[in-house]
Amino acid sequence: MSWLVTGGAGYIGSHVVRALAAEGLEPVVLDDLSSGIEAFVPEGVPFVRGTLLDGDLIANTLEAHGVTGVVHVAGYKYAGVSVQRPLHTYEQNVTGTATLLEAMAGRGVDRIVFSSSAAVYGTPSTDLVTEDTAKSPESPYGESKLIGEWLLRDQGVATGLRHTSLRYFNVVGSGEPNLYDASPHNLFPLVFQALLDGRTPKIFGDDYGTPDGTCVRDYVHVADLAVSHAVAAKKLDAGERLETAYNLGSGAGVSVRQIMDAMAEATGIAFTPEIGPRRPGDPDRIVAEGVLAGRDLDWKMRHTLLEMVSSAWEARRSAE
């Protein structure tokens, strides 16, 4: 059985491709390489270069490879930048998802695992987010992910589409030494680049209501995340019932200062981070609960913080 992985040449998608293969599912990658890297696609895995806005290409790919399900990871993922590029964000994430679902319906592909985001919650009023926490996205990116979930829901009612959406916060680490996070906006690559350039990383505010005064956030290892995508795909194949959405969260979180300490230890570059002013809108703590995903999707935190940082650093150095 073949599973199409949209965005399968990207940082998260490439790990999902490997997790599917490890579970005996046959991945096929569709990626426009706008942020993905073709070398991230494993040898022997079919690769189709193209955009989700091309419905004919998607339909032909589904038919040519006998695709029975889709893991939809592709999308424009830069929440902050989406505020300046709302129309582009909606085109890529909403129109693209609708085009994908239309092609799936036309080819009788009736199961999908959707890479959603904790951005659907916005800034929650509680510091432990559950699947029932109110949805209040604060960026076009977060809104587009919530609309994506609605599209799956409505298509499920209309056509019987079997689906689940996986929501997560900060994805870090690497499952293989050559798969790295190339995002220009994420914390880990930004800190690594600063250290490689000889600059001192900065912490924005150290007077929050947390044990060490710095913000606490949810960081999860990309390989752990990929495992749960593959488990969800297998369960949809088996006709098992899944929740419409799951949080892939640590339940605990780590502080920015703890991240910086682990960075110094993993890289061997001693530094004391600069302390800058708070950024507007940064809450003290946001952490997601992962109980439902632990019950249904073999979700667990298999890596320590130091392992997350060390694996990410090793992979980043492979790009030099």
TrEMBL record:
EC number, UniProt record: 5.1.3.2
Location of the NAD-dependent epimerase/dehydratase domain: 3-249
EC supergroup of this enzyme: isomerase
Classification via Pfam families: Epimerase
Pathway: Carbohydrate metabolism; galactose metabolism
UniProt KW keywords: Carbohydrate metabolism, Isomerase, NAD
Domain of life according to the entry: Bacteria
Similarity annotation: Belongs to the NAD(P)-dependent epimerase/dehydratase family.
Entry protein name: UDP-glucose 4-epimerase
Naturally occurring in which organism (per UniProt): Frondihabitans cladoniiphilus
